[in-house]
Amino acid sequence: VWEKYAVTVNALLKYSPFGEHVQVEGDKDATSDGATVDVDNDNKNQQQEQCQKCGYVMCTTVAENRSLMDELFNAKPTVFKPNLPHLVYQYGVYINFIEQCTVLKEKNPEIHED
């Protein structure tokens, strides 16, 4: 499932907030009218670089998906954890802008770790 999310995220992040297209090797077509864009999925470094250049990625998932979040989005775990009382597992927040984010470097006071 996460791999399909990654394709969508990378397609959305191809355009900067100012409407400029960021060209990534392997692109076949990139238009603002919703045309399909094919990206070379074999080059993970280009995908990660693209995410950082074009937008912020924030994901919530279980700790077991840490390496997958890093691989797909260059997203690192934060200190902050969301309060989701009805879920069996504690989710974490993963972002690709860890150095710039100060808020998510603090613990959530609603979470009491044993």
Structural features, described:
By secondary structure, this protein is α+β, with helices and mostly antiparallel strands. The protein contains three helices and three strands, in the order ααβαββ. The chain has helices at residues 2-12, 44-54, 66-73; strands at residues 58-62, 76-77, 91-95. The protein has a three-stranded antiparallel sheet with strand order 1-3-2. The longest helix has 11 residues, at 2-12. The radius of gyration is 16 Å and the shape is globular.
List keywords for this structure.
alpha+beta, 114 residues, globular, 26% helix
**SSE-based structural type:** alpha+beta
Classify the helix fraction into a percent range: 25-40%
What is the chain-wise order of helices and strands?
Answer: HHEHEE
List the strand order in the largest sheet.
1-3-2
Mean pLDDT, as a whole number?
Answer: 76
β-strand number = 3
Distance between the termini: 31 Å
Percent strand: 5-15%
General shape: globular
Indicate the radius of gyration in whole angstroms.
16 Å
Main sheet properties:
3 strands, antiparallel
Put simply, the count of helices is: 3
Helix-strand blueprint:
Elements: H1 2-12, H2 44-54, E1 58-62, H3 66-73, E2 76-77, E3 91-95
In short, what is this structure?
This protein is 26% helix and 11% strand. The chain has a three-stranded antiparallel β-sheet with strand order 1-3-2. It is built from three helices and three strands; from the N terminus they run ααβαββ.
